[in-house]
Amino acid sequence: MGLLDHAFAALGVRQNAATPGSPGQRSGVRVTTAPAILEKSMSIVVTAATGQLGRLVVDELLTRAAADRVVAVARNERKAARIAAKGVEVRIADYGKPETLKNVFGVCDVALLISGTEFGQRTAQHRNVIDAAKATGVARLTYTSVLGGLIEGGYKEAAEQHKPTEQAIVESGLTYTLLRNGWYTENYTAQIPGQLKHGVVGAAGEGKIGSATRADFAAAAAVVLTSGGHENKIYELSGDSAWSFAEYAAELSLQSGTEIAYRDVPVETLAAVFSRAGIPAEQAYNYAEIDLGIKRGLLQGGSGELSRLIGRPTTPLAETISAALKG
User: Fold this and answer.
1) Which parts of the chain sit beneath pLDDT 50?
2) Which of 57, 71, 187, 222 is buried most, with the most CB atoms less than 10 Å from its CB?
3) What integer pLDDT is reported at residue 41 of this predicted model?
4) What is the pLDDT of residues 89-110, one digit of tens each?
C-alpha cells in the first residue's frame, strides 16, 4: 500500500469493487507557414532538461533542429547521459547556485526557463537564471508559467512563484515569451492505481480542466524556441476540450471496467489527504487550493492557442487514460 493509499484509507474511502464494463503584449498566435528558423549561430538552451517536461522539449527540438544547436542544462550529469548520447551538449548548473549559471548561456542564445520544483525557493532561483541570461545577453528568454486566471486569482503558489517571475523577466529588458501552461493530464492519470482502489477525490465540484499532455506543451515550447513571431508575447495554453472530475471518473470506469466514482470533499479534507501522503502541510493546502480554482473555471482554458501553435489537436483525455492503463 502506497502513501496515498494510506491517506485515503485514513479518510475512510472504500476500495472500489470491480464490475464488468471511456504582463506584456497579449497573446495572438502568429506562426508563419514556413517558420523563420533562428540563426544557425544561436544555440537553443533548455534548463531543467532532465525533468519530465524538459526531456520532452529536448526530444521535440531534435525533430526541428540539429543536435549541435541544442544545449541541455541539468543538475546531474548522470541523469543527463541519455540526452548527451543524442549529441546534445550538456551543461551542469543549479538554479539555487548562481555561480554555476555564469557559463550556461551564450550571447544571442534562445533560452527556455522551465519553472523550478523546490517549494518556497522557486522565485529566488528563477531570478538567478534571469540574471544570468541578462548578463550574457540572450536573444530571447521563454518561461513556462501557469494560466493567467490562477496568477490573477490570488492563488498562493501562482502568486508567489509565477507572477514575480513573469514580472522579473519583463523588467529585465530581455525579449521574452511567456508560456502560460494549463494543467498536465498526467497530473491525474499518474494517480490511476490509487483511483482504481479508492475512486477520484477532489474539491472542484463541477469545475472543468482544459488539460493537455506534457508532450503537447513540450511541442509548443519547441515551436516557440525554433520559430519567429513570438517576441514579447504571452500565450494562454490549454487543451482543446475541458472535463470535470465526474467526467474523468466516467471515462476511467469505461476503459478500466471498474466502477469509479468522484467524491467531492471540502478543500481542507483534500489537503489532509495530501498531508497524510507525506506532503508538507503548507504545500498540501496549496495543492488542494488549486481545486477551488478549477471550481471557479480558472483552469478551463479554451483559447485554442495550444493546438494552433503545435498545428494539431491536443491529446484527448480518453487517449491519455488509455495510455496510462496500458502502462
Assistant:
1) 1-37
2) 57
3) 52
4) 999 999 999 999 999 999 999 9
**What are the C-alpha distances in Å from 287 to residues 53, 243, 265, 267, 292?**
19, 19, 14, 10, 10
Q: Determine the pLDDT at residue 281.
A: 81
DSSP 176-207: EEEEEE--BTHHHHTTHHHHHHH-EEES-TT-
Nearest alpha-carbon partner for 300 in 186, 209, 187: 209
* pLDDT at position 152: 81
* Rounded-to-integer distance, Cα 62 and Cα 42, Å: 15
Q: What is the DSSP letter of 44?
A: E
Residue type, 241: S
Per-residue pLDDT, 40: 52
Write down the H helix ranges in 73-162: 81-84, 122-136, 148-152, 156-157
Return the domain boundaries, the chain. 44-242+297-326
What is the Cα–Cα distance from 43 to 2, expressed in whole angstroms? 43
Nine cell digits for residue 86: 543524442
CATH number of 44-242+297-326: 3.40.50.720
